[in-house]
Queue: 2 jobs
Job 1
Amino acid sequence: MTERKSVETIAEGVFEGGEPYLRVGSGRPLVYLAGFALTHANPTGRMRQIALASVQGLASAGFEVYYTSRAPGLAVGTTFSDIAASHAAGLAAHFGEPVDVLGHSTGGDLALQLVVDHPEVVRRAVAASAAYRLGPVAKRAQLAMIASLERDGRQRCSPTPRA
């Protein structure tokens, strides 16, 4: 039976481009690009527990995992290429060599953009649960969420988005 190390130490930081990260584990660096989030900050409360649970296995397997998202305060019109460029600069400055990257959901799309635009910062990449576009249900849900945020700054989640 394989013995699994637990995540013991959690550190917080910010990459050069302003992308916040939670760091857990030790070993070869692995940058975990998180999926869509309403806030671009290190998660807190229940969302922090979920984020750490998402990377527990990776940290236990011997990686130093950097769970990260987009930088806060992105300007309207910011593209995925812009976000990838910011991440690439931050990764190059922080690590000084190519690193492994795992992107989940929207983070998977970002991982692919990093590989295409900035292969020099990526050692290996995995895109998990990523798609080139949203299906109709997810698209309606995200449009409804955006409309709600624009209306009063609050997110409303519904298990069954309406057309």
Job 2
Amino acid sequence: MAINPKILNEGEHVIISTRTHPKALIVPGLILLLILVVAIFSDRTFVGGAFSWGMWVVAVGLILWLSVWPLLEWLSASYTITNRRLITRRGVLVRRGHDIPLSRISDVAYELGVVDRMLGCGTLIISDASTLGRVPLHDIPHVEETQRRLNDLLHDLGESPRADDGS
């Protein structure tokens, strides 16, 4: 889950490293079970060589597309907060990343739905000074604690003396 230390700048260290909550895997897991149940039932009910092989080929294709691919996407996504920036990385075949310097973050909020509260996750909403405006990070585990720690970092950043103020 940790990011490659080579992308960190000198003096930069990881404060929080996480990925989306495992709840993102519930639907793909249920789909996997459903496909297997239907495939096994069909195989036992319609005993026939070509039909059986064709049905299993379709079942494996659906499993790869609807269950394995979401698992790979979940495993490849990460959210990292360092003492200097927020780093997001995702993508299996094509990696996508977004870095936001902490100095550009203007607000940190979170949203919790009923299911999120039961599972201990939520959406962290980062507002920055860029043209993007708001960056939602969905299904962050322990979102309230993450928001508090990020706010502490931003507060500490605001209190540190700047080079141009004569300190």
